[in-house]
Design a protein that fits this description.
- This protein is α+β, with helices and mostly antiparallel strands.
- It has 2 domains: about 60 residues, no CATH class; about 140 residues, no CATH class.
- Helix content is about 35%, strand content about 15%.
- It is elongated, with a radius of gyration of 35 Å.
- The termini are far apart.
- The relative contact order is 0.14.
């Protein structure tokens, strides 16, 4: 017998019965007769945990992307349609949606510092842009006043009425004339000076005229309080009547969205600070008919 055969027999005698054994018992496994070591079980558990974490992160990413107002509000992005070029109306038709969600689609940038605002850039005041044979001022007075009385022989001119004034919360009587016109004024919710600094310079002359006369951007208010407001944005001024602030900010958001006006970082924070107290507050659509 050769040396190779004797060596093989010697190795066989060294193998214990039952095959290879580890200190913990036979090494059994699928296909190879090996068992999974403890380190392998730890690795498998780690892979499972990582897979679960990845799934949760993916869910959060998807839901937060569809929830611009942040977790817990359940808001979807608002529906926005481009208006027909040259049409009387807003630049965009933004359908009613939670104002908090609409804030998130507004462009944020620093206001234009150029001091070249000119009221004439927004067209002649109080035009009859909706062609109902009444100017915009009287349209708003008829909408906002109660107990309205018209000038005899006119279907437009408001002679008298009563206003539940939103900025102060007071009830005011309106009587047509120079004194009453100072006491009750028609305010541009987004002041035209603010609009000019936040993108209106890039609008066409017709679009600026539509902005200045859109009933969405106009409300009847206390004259002196309107003077105090001047052309301040949300970060600079809010109505003294706190009960009206949610509606006021939602209307500002509506106007800025409809005319593609931007907001400053401070303005966005101020808007969200108010609207966080009323997350269900809805925006308004343009006052121009579709």
């Amino acid at each position: 017998m050769g040396n190779d055969a004797r060596g093989l027999r010697s190795r066989r005698r060294l193998l214990p019965r039952g095959g290879l054994r580890s200190r913990r018992g036979p090494l059994r496994g699928v296909g190879f007769g090996l068992s999974v070591r403890p380190q392998g079980r730890v690795l498998a558990m780690l892979i499972l945990v990582l897979a679960l974490v990845a799934a949760v992160l993916g869910w959060l990413h998807t839901n937060l992307a569809m929830d611009p107002a942040g977790p817990g509000h359940g808001f979807s992005p608002p529906v926005v349609e481009t208006n027909r070029p040259g049409a009387v109306g807003p630049v965009l038709r933004v359908h009613a949606a939670p104002a908090l969600s609409v804030v998130e689609i507004l462009t944020v940038r620093v206001a234009d510092a150029r001091n070249n605002y000119d009221r004439q850039a927004f067209g002649e005041p109080w035009l009859d842009v909706d062609r109902n044979s009444c100017d915009t001022r009287d349209d708003v007075l008829r909408r906002d006043l109660t107990d309205v009385q018209l000038v005899k022989g006119s279907r437009c001119l408001v002679a008298a009425g009563r206003l539940s004034e939103p900025y102060t919360g007071r009830v005011m009587d309106f009587s047509r004339g120079p004194d009453s016109s100072k006491a009750i004024q028609i305010d541009h919710v987004v002041a035209l000076g603010d609009a000019w600094r936040s993108g209106a310079q890039q609008l066409t002359a017709l679009q600026r005229q539509n902005l200045a006369n859109d009933p969405l951007n106009l409300i009847a208010v206390d004259g002196p309080t309107n003077v105090d407001k001047s052309d301040g944005d949300t970060a600079a001024w809010l109505p003294p009547n706190k009960a009206f602030r949610c509606q006021y900010v939602a209307r500002q958001v509506s106007v800025k969205a409809a005319y593609r006006l931007w907001i400053t970082p401070a303005e966005k924070e101020a808007m969200k600070r108010v609207l966080d107290r009323c997350p269900g507050q809805q925006t308004l659509e343009s006052g121009y008919p579709p």
